[in-house]
């Protein structure tokens, strides 16, 4: 099988992570999955959400947005409609859940860190890029806090990253771009820690149902991709 991008089935797009790209944020990175580019920033607030106050633990949350010309045709800013779309809300909740899964919220103390993920250019896999880059921005923020004695230790339990997989022309493939994603028979997103623990799986049959064997093939590819992404996170933070 020949993929539209000419990549092998288990081959990812080129992934680039650039740290400290936002001057004022406590943590930031620009992550590129091929032609998908996402700016991730981490902002510290010295108080938790109102509903969490007095409980002695903190919170990590996320917001996600696409710039109007991140896509081929201009997309109207969601602020113009007065509220984020259902897709936006679903993605930012996924990012928040993924990052909280590897953060010791008790050790964070009564503080909140907000991860803003702004899609500058979209070519498929924006949520997976946001999670992978969001972890780097979060790590940068926590290191910033530790260097200023705000935290005694860095409250990260593990790395976390995300990658897409799919069934295309009857074969499992890794890291779908937009052209491939729009035509895939099955589309799936995997969020996995550095140690290999599963955080979340989103999988749906688009044009055809998928078997357990096909799911396992996608999971195996996802684990390979996550290992590569975690290695890149470590390299970026070295």
TrEMBL record:
Catalytic activity as recorded in UniProt: tRNA(n+1) + phosphate = tRNA(n) + a ribonucleoside 5'-diphosphate
- Known EC number(s)? 2.7.7.56
Ligand binding (phosphate): 87, 125-127
Q: Name one GO biological process term.
A: rRNA 3'-end processing
Which key words are in the record?
Answer: Nucleotidyltransferase, RNA-binding, rRNA processing, Transferase, tRNA processing, tRNA-binding
Top-level taxon: Bacteria
Q: Name one GO molecular function term.
A: 3'-5'-RNA exonuclease activity
Question: Subunit arrangement?
Answer: Homohexameric ring arranged as a trimer of dimers.
Q: Which HAMAP family match?
A: RNase_PH
Q: What does this protein do?
A: Phosphorolytic 3'-5' exoribonuclease that plays an important role in tRNA 3'-end maturation. Removes nucleotide residues following the 3'-CCA terminus of tRNAs; can also add nucleotides to the ends of RNA molecules by using nucleoside diphosphates as substrates, but this may not be physiologically important. Probably plays a role in initiation of 16S rRNA degradation (leading to ribosome degradation) during starvation.
Q: What is this protein called?
A: Ribonuclease PH
**Taxonomic lineage of the native organism:** Bacteria, Pseudomonadati, Pseudomonadota, Alphaproteobacteria, Hyphomicrobiales
